[in-house]
Amino acid sequence: MSQSFCLDDISASLPLPDISIRFEVLKPNFLRLWLSTQAGTYIKEFVHGDFGRTSPSLRTLLECAADILSLDVEAINMEWPPAV
Q1: In which band, very low, low, confident or very high, does the pLDDT at 9 lie, cut at 50, 70 and 90?
Q2: Residues 6+ apart with CB under 8 A from 69
Q3: Would the pTM of this model clear 0.70, i.e. be above it?
Q4: DSSP secondary structure string for all residues of the chain
Q5: How far apart are CA 11 and CA 21, in angstroms?
Q6: In contact, 71 and 44? CB cutoff 8 Å
Q7: pLDDT single digits (tens) 32-57
Q8: Distance of alpha carbon 34 from alpha carbon 70, whole angstroms
Q9: Rg of the chain taking only CA atoms, in angstroms
Q10: Strand partners for 7
Q11: Which comes out higher in pLDDT, residue 60 or 19?
């Protein structure tokens, strides 16, 4: 059974501030996601939903099971040290 979805629509409808999603379909049931979020966003919980405690989650938005096989932080955009 195939699932049809558009992550662009999901990203636009997220009630979360400053989050954007880019994805690449690797094979059926496997996506590579690039998330750009604000500091403090719980990425793992956003993806799998933390047993229903995190909403929205990618799992609920796609209406299918979702989990993380690998998680890499590619960049941190932060002014440091902060202006005094």
Answers
A1: low
A2: none
A3: no
A4: ------HHHHHHH--STT-EEEEEEEETTEEEEEEE--TT--HHHHHH-TTTTSSS-HHHHHTS----S----------SSPP-
A5: 6
A6: yes
A7: 988 888 777 888 888 888 888 888 88
A8: 12
A9: 14
A10: none
A11: 60
